[in-house]
């Protein structure tokens, strides 16, 4: 564009149509597009979403520039926004599609320890934490302007490939507001962004005590309470939580009578079968099949026969792979540097092909090969 003239005006409808075409192209390339979509005029409504937006607007430099991005995020111009550890990557539709990258420093260890100490014994449920159902003292700690969980201006670096020379252009401003909207649906991403584990804020003892006081059955604790407190996954089979299951008892195995040694070598058909069995014993013990590999033991050593990487990569294929490893969604996600919620979204695709960034796809292929 010329430095002496403005770019031609592009209507919102034209921007949306153009952006939609570009997003479809990215989907075909395997990119999991995550647009910011608002249900109304309000950008953020939750404790974490509003807290993020209020925090950004509390700084004078940002307060003067952020309003430029409000209309962009409200009219759906943030076509894609992904939050990961220390990084926000986005695509914003303007006169063209612009790529925005925001780098955020991890939360300092001393600050995180201070937050945990101040919240100790005051957060009894992971659900309460993520829903923002906290007492006033805890809310003040986590949202403190300088010592809380939200980043300071000096801890953020902005980059946009638009021609605007401003440190914070309207595209960056739109992305910052988009983060607030995203935290409404996925508040745990704030902790991912700052590089800390939100589960460390939960007081497990308080959670179990509160659950017991409420008269919750053991089965209800297993199927809901513990999952909420620890952030783990319970078995995926359907269970009626109203049924009180008995406590399982451990049965001692019956003693096995030793086989008396033969004093005389047997003969006949039975002996032939036994001799053949003894001759092959230790050569081929077992074959365990899963969607990924065959494990065959030969002479006591495991031999792996790799199966080809599933093409296309569907939600059912990812789920079958994870279950064959005996891992939770969170543990499986750690293999490829994504969140448990991302794995959950993949598996919900069922027979549909899963779209994702090329970096993530490469990590998946590497994990497949190494395991």
Overall description:
The protein is α+β, with helices and mostly antiparallel strands and 371 residues long. Among the domains are: 12-106 and 149-193, no CATH class; 315-370, Orthogonal Bundle (434 Repressor (Amino-terminal Domain)). The chain has helices spanning 12-28, 47-57, 60-65, 67-74, 109-119, 126-131, 136-142, 170-185, 188-194, 204-213, 218-230, 269-280, 315-325, 329-335, 340-347, 358-370; strands spanning 78-84, 87-93, 97-104, 156-160, 284-289, 293-298, 301-306. The strands form 2 sheets. Strands 1-2-3-4 form a 4-stranded antiparallel sheet. A hairpin with a 2-residue loop joins strand 6 (293-298) and strand 7. Helix 10 (204-213) runs antiparallel to helix 11 and helix 14 (329-335) crosses helix 15 (340-347). It is globular. The protein starts with 11 loop residues before the first helix and ends with a helix. Residues 205-253, 277-299 and 301-305 have low confidence and may be disordered.
Task: Outline the secondary-structure elements.
Blueprint: H1 12-28, H2 47-57, H3 60-65, H4 67-74, E1 78-84, E2 87-93, E3 97-104, H5 109-119, H6 126-131, H7 136-142, E4 156-160, H8 170-185, H9 188-194, H10 204-213, H11 218-230, H12 269-280, E5 284-289, E6 293-298, E7 301-306, H13 315-325, H14 329-335, H15 340-347, H16 358-370
Antiparallel strand pairs: 1-2, 2-3, 3-4, 5-6, 6-7
Q: Largest sheet, if any?
A: 4 strands, antiparallel
Radius of gyration, rounded? 28 Å
Strand arrangement across the biggest beta sheet: 1-2-3-4
Q: Helicity level, as a percent range? A: 40-55%
Q: How many beta-strand runs?
A: 7
Strand content: 5-15%
How many helix segments? 16
Q: SS-based structural class?
A: alpha+beta
The backbone outline, from C-alpha atoms, is: globular
Elements, N to C (H/E): HHHHEEEHHHEHHHHHEEEHHHH
